[in-house]
Amino acid sequence: MNAEPQSECTKCLQEIEFFRASDIRQKSRCKWASLGDENSSFFHNIVKGRYARNAIPGLAVNGEWVSKPAPVKREVLRFFRNHFKEKIRVRPSIPVVAVMRRFLWSSSSDGKRINWVAWNTLTLPKNMGGLGLSKLQHVNEALLLKWNWRFKTEDQSLWKKVMLGCHGSIRSWSSLPCSLSASGCWKHITKIGEKRIHNGTPLNKFFVAIVGSERLQVINGEKRLSWDWRTAPNSAAQISELFQLLSDIYDFDWKGGTDKWVWTADKEGVFSVKEAKKLLFSSSNLQATRHFSWKGWAPFKCKIMAWRASIDRLATKSELIKRGVSLPSDLCVFCISNAESSTHLFTGCIYAAEIWSRIEAWCRISPIFAFEVSDLLKLADYQGNSKQYVGKEVEYQRSSIIRY
């Protein structure tokens, strides 16, 4: 028999079988409509057929054929449990904050160094007495919040269409669509917008929609709105909400333009991770420490040292002993009369007094009376903004470098 007539016969038989099955299904639907639950044989036959096709009659276990249901179930469970089982029960984690802290204070991985300033203080903004380092939690949350902005502005992107297909709902009034059974990264993205800042405002409130001429038009002083109904209002509550919406539209001050989203935390209305981090920091309710002015011509590393001196976090003998370092004495190495601390080294020691006296003569400024390191940092408020003070500040930082 030739191959071509055989394939034609096979194709004809398949078509006959297809039409026969369609006819049976159609007849079953008609009987179901008239007889209801009495016509259940067809559906039971379908279920039995699928059950027979999906059944496992037996498995070969260690070279032996096993057909009893209980051993077959145990073998299937054992196979998939071993297949998806993790070889390492505890997943390794990278202590990123610890790595950053070690890099800041020791710049290497050799040995353990003293962390002189608390991490929460280092991550404070400079205007609140910190160094302005980014907190990884705030950076991560700001980047997650950026997906809210992208979802609202990238209408034609493929990933947005996928998310709408997976989580979209006609009843959803949330900022981002998310099914109740969803888990993982997308759920975290939707939850981050619900986080509230210090005044109780959720982050989603900073995304504001501006209605443009695509939906609302004004013709001869009359406002006309184009609707795109998925389902028409069909209850008294929905009709009441519709009339309230129409009333709000009538009172709306329309300025033209196109539909767009605005990020109100930024002056330009465009989302930025920097402004999002500021909002997230405001929700942490951290208190500001001493104010430190970072203006000046001194090198940055000298300003860091002056900042540490202002909060008493220099490696003086008193601070080292507090942190468990064994020293023969805590007395100042210069005057050998008082405990060595930041305040003593910069203001109380007789050698420091001599240095400040010579700075006064060299810069031709009025006498310096300082009892704390903070008093030295406020000299600009009393000496004015002349070039003499600039020279004094450089000499102050330079004298600090000579000491350390």
Could you characterize the architecture of this molecule?
InterPro entries: RVT-Znf. It holds the Pfam family zf-RVT. GO terms for molecular function: RNA-directed DNA polymerase activity. It is a single chain. This protein has 404 residues and is mainly α. Among the domains are: 1-39; 96-122, no CATH class; 300-403, no CATH class. The protein is 50% helix and 5% strand. It has 17 helices and six strands. It has helices at 3-35, 41-54, 69-83, 96-105, 119-122, 136-153, 158-167, 185-192, 236-251, 273-282, 300-310, 317-322, 342-348, 350-363, 373-377, 379-383, 387-403; strands at 59-61, 64-66, 207-210, 216-219, 222-225, 260-263. The strands form three sheets. The chain has a two-stranded antiparallel ribbon. The chain has a two-stranded antiparallel ribbon with strand order 3-6. β4 (216-219) and β5 (222-225) form a beta hairpin. α6 (136-153) crosses α8 and α6 (136-153) crosses α10 (273-282).
